[in-house]
Amino acid sequence: MKDRSYFIEAALRYEELLESGQIISLDAFVTQEPPEVREELRAFLEFNLTLGELDEPAVLSPTEEAAAGRVMALTRAAWERELLGEPAQNLTDLRKSQQITVGRLARQLTLPVDLLARLERGKVRVATIPERLIERLAEALQTTSSVIRAALLAPPPISANVRLNAEDGIVEPEEMIVSFAQAFADSAPTEEEYAAWADTLSSARR
């Protein structure tokens, strides 16, 4: 498993590229790293670039400390699955294994169905997904939080529309990957859904 020093070293390399005049996006940089750490590394880079200097210890706020902890927990989950040689099940696989529809699961979680579908498509930045939601998904799908984290990192299913478009040579705009808070807002939650997650969303913004 990659430890914190790996992420710091990678972040310092990225800063050196920028300082040398090489304009490279975060996405382009992380594609040069091992696939299993790209999502966490991108989140770590965003996190540290926001803080500033990477070679000096930073005093983190409780919210920042929690964000860093989520990044490392996600990395740990991915590596544990790889070391055990277990097949990578995505969130859709886990849901279907319990014979639960996306609508039913969303109702159990008091979550907008559009948001849950977006999570399954891999279009929500994993490091921003609240620990509370990971725990509730684990409970609803009768598994562990570690398995849910690994599932969120696994490649999402390829839809029939994507396959048809690829065969027809039609290129559609790529759906943006956004934060959990943004995806929640985009999904036009009901009053009940908003009330159920208001405290979590408020904490994430602090």
Structural overview:
The chain is built from 12 helices and no strands. It starts with a helix and ends with a helix. With 206 residues, it is mainly alpha-helical. Helix content is 64%, strand content 0%.
Q: Biggest β-sheet, characterized?
A: none
Shape: globular
Mean model confidence by pLDDT: 76
Order of H and E elements? HHHHHHHHHHHH
Ends distance: 30 Å
Cα radius of gyration in angstroms:
18 Å
Helix percent band = 55-70%
Task: Give a quick rundown of the structure.
64% of the residues lie in helices and 0% in strands.
Question: Layout of helices and strands, plus pairs?
Answer:
Elements: H1 4-19, H2 26-30, H3 38-51, H4 62-84, H5 91-97, H6 102-109, H7 113-120, H8 131-140, H9 145-153, H10 160-168, H11 180-186, H12 191-205
Helix pairs in contact: 1-3, 3-4, 4-9, 6-7, 8-9
Identify the notable features of this structure and list them briefly.
single chain; 206 residues; mainly alpha
